[in-house]
Every structure is written in structure tokens, then in C-alpha cells.
Amino acid sequence: MEASKARSDISLEVDGERRSLTVDNRTTLLDALREHLDVTSPKKGCDHGQCGSCTVLLDGRRVTTCLTFAVAQDGAQITTAAGLASGDELCSMQQAFLDHDGFQCGYCTPGQICSAIGMLDEVKAGHPSHVTDDLAAEPDQLSDDEIRERMSGNLCRCAAYPNILAAIRQAATP
């Protein structure tokens, strides 16, 4: 197949809005969002899945969009950090990041927030991590080590980790 003809029509629900586009089959979900749909909340950091700045919730699970082909996600529901708020009311994780100054330059913040939400959902579903002691622990009972391990795929160049940890702890507490 000729490279110029290797294109597909796909449809994505991004932050509650159904969007249709045509992409080269090699286009990452990150590039489809940023370059084709002008959705700039997920950031391009390393482009190798190592920094987490491109993390979004894909059908409710956290994923690094730089490692995901857009064509494989046809019909998927994508929530970016920009789509978490309800009007002018921030979601609890966004508010916690503000309350605890869980950002400095802010570049990693959208990915950190989406990853934190996905991480807490994984805990609720009973998914263990490398340091999990108690598989029956509730999200608000997570140790600092557990949160750090589960968030280890999201890097912060400014080293706001103590504030990010405090924000996640606040959002996890009912």
C-alpha cells in the first residue's frame, strides 16, 4: 500500500464532544489530538512514553498518548485534563492541585492530573502495584510509597513531587 494512501477516517469522543478526522495510520493519538483537533491539554514531552506529560483517560483508563496509534482508538472516549471540569467547577483532583500548589511550570500538570485520577480508579478496582501491602486498602488509605510508585511514570521537571503527593492524598480522601 502506498504511504500516501495509508489513511483512515476515525471518530473520537474528546472531552464529551464527538470529533471526526482523517489521519495517516502512523499518527499517534497525541498528534491526532494536538495537531488535528487542536486539543492542547496533553503535552508532548519525551515522545517515548517515559515522562507521562501526554497522559489522558482513554475509555476511563490512563494511557500515554504518544505510544498509542489514533487509528486503534476509533470510537474511543478520551478525557483530557481540560475535560474534567464541570463548567467553571473544577474536579476534585484539579482543585487539590491548586490547593497544594501541585505544579510550578505546569507543563506536566495535565498528565499528572489524568494519571492521578486513573491511578485512584485502578486502586478502587483492586489493581496492585509493586509496593502494595494491602490489596483491600481504600484509596484514602494509600501510603505515600504506594502513591509514589503508582505515579512513577509521570515526571515533573520542577520537582513539585511533595505537593503533587499532597494533592493526590487530598483528592483520595472522601
Description:
The protein is an alpha+beta fold. The protein folds into two domains: 3-82, Roll (Ubiquitin-like (UB roll)), CATH 3.10.20.30; 92-172, DNA polymerase, domain 1 (Orthogonal Bundle). Helices cover 29% and strands 16% of the residues. It has a five-stranded mixed beta sheet, with helices on both faces. A hairpin with a 2-residue loop joins strand 1 (7-14) and strand 2. Helix 2 packs across helix 5 (161-172). The N and C termini lie far apart (54 Å). 39% of the residues are buried. Residues 8-84 form the 2Fe-2S ferredoxin-type domain. This is 2Fe-2S iron-sulfur cluster-binding protein. Pfam families: Fer2 (PF00111), Fer2_2 (PF01799). InterPro entries: 2Fe-2S-bd, 2Fe-2S-bd_dom_sf, 2Fe-2S_ferredoxin-like_sf, 2Fe-2S_ferredoxin-type, 2Fe2S_fd_BS, Aldehyde_Oxdr_Iron-Sulfur, Beta-grasp_dom_sf.
